[in-house]
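Workshop exercise sheet. Pairs work together: one partner reads the sequence aloud, the other fills in the structure field after running the prediction. Swap roles for the next sheet.
Pair: D.N. / O.F.
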Amino acid sequence: MLKTPPSFVPLLTAPDLAEHPAPLNFVFRGDELLVRQDAAELPAAFEPVPDAFLPVGVLEGRYARATWLAREAVAPEGFEFRKLRSLFGVMDEGLVAVAGRAYQIAEWARTHRFCGACATPTERVAGERCARCPACGMVAYPRISPAMMVLIKKGEAVLLARHLHHPAQFFTALAGFVEAGESIEETVHREVYEEVGLRVRDVAYFGSQPWPFPHSLMLAFTAEYESGEIRVDENEIAEAGWFGPGDVMPKYPPRGFSIAGELIHAHLPRG
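Structure field:
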């Protein structure tokens, strides 16, 4: 599963560049990262407008920093902009994980240049990941949107669904975002009932993963089937079904980068 390497140390303030002469430059255009065309490597040098880089951290002794460019920006010769998803399995896993963090920081900076209350240009607060309005005092921190994923078990079988709007046509666990005023457990019960019409019990935590598309934190669970017949929400789910021992498993997310693959693999029907 895609995780930030243990060697990574977050930074809120840029270090002395004399001590870090070869920084890792994460340069984004929207949700696309600038990389070399021939090797999917970061640019060794990149000079946007002064002070445009934001500190991300130190990865294996190298300073990692992020910036963003306008949507119409053109990649320098020999480089291209690539979606983060397309770098899974191509770029080093630890580097992709830090790229996800860098993207969320750059996107926060891009979308909080002005106060959302009075439109005054914001200022960055020293020593914090915070944008503050000098006129009205409103503050804005990087947004994190919690979401849940749940694999429902019924005896030896598991429920897998194919989502209408998922870019890959995998069968996977159910998922949904937490609504305002809702606990994560309430989200599990609500989303399960809304998407497939089932009631569940014994919700148990499995693990979590930051998911920078664009700024989510995925919390994965298992749950036991309690009652109901599958009734799919046709606005969200293309099809759903139980898969148990002896059944041919549909195509589901692979292990490695996604917590969905880890969750399903850990509970595959045996036999």
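Discussion prompt: Helices lie at 93-111, 184-196, 259-266. What would you look at next?
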